[in-house]
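Q: Got a minute? One more chain.
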Amino acid sequence: MARLVLLVGVCFIGAFVGVALAAVVLSVVWDVPLTSLNLLLSGDAFHPHQRAIVRTTLTLQQIATFTLAPLVLLAFTVPARPLGQWVRAQGRVSGGWLLAGVLLTVASLPLLSGFIEWNAGWHFSGPLAGFDQWMRDQEATARRLTLQVARMDSGAELLATLVALALVPAVGEELVFRGIVQPTLTRGLGGRAHLGIWLTAAVFSAIHLQFLGFVPRLLLGAGFGYLYQWSGRLAVPIAAHFTNNAVQVLLLYLSQRGTLSGFDPDSTSALPLPWVLASGAATAGLLLRLRRAAAPALPAAPDDVASSADA
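A: Always. Here it is, folded:
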């Protein structure tokens, strides 16, 4: 469990490293001083290349925080041979499992829309009124940032947004949460995999600080966790995570180009009930099928290796 404390620490350091890297890149490429970065990210300042600046900053921060930092942690806390075995095992993933992760994600989207509508309707009053206002302020801040990043006027901007909002988060967040946190928690809980998966999913959802979307993100995180538990390959939840984010980016892009008339990207309304019910049935069927296809012996995760960090 000590590795989880170290993980938090190195991720915080990684976040600062990401800001420093972004400051260097922005200064060299667009002559943007560090003092202006927060203003640009909040939308309180303007730059001709603002969208590219924000995408670059988010991408570098994500890579430094959720990819480089945990890789450094593993390199220093797991013996080289077991870590190498785990990495090599991760490279052996079947196309069937990757396709299953993608299909499960797509099939579950209408079902999740029902949870999105329900969760977005949460209201707190009385002693929790302050928390309610904080939740809504967080949603407004996230929406402003998304509008800056996800405004796409060309195919090139679509690709850049897919990298910033889909590919990089999928790789980094799955490495941290499914690759490190989930197996560590599961082992600490005496091997109770279900509890480890759901606790990891709860942390994964909470860390986004968007509690009006906590429940659907919790369910997504649990789905990613079961995909990793059953397949034993990190590439499977990465593919599922990327698919979820990429679908949202593509829908937004098509909406901005006028291809999807009547589509409101800010809507939290559920899809029609027949769609939600069909999605629920398809999701349940896929989960049962994947559970039966689960690998009988999963490769050891890096956190399953005894090291000085766990002493």
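A: The two ends are 9 Å apart (CA to CA).
Q: Perfect, thanks.
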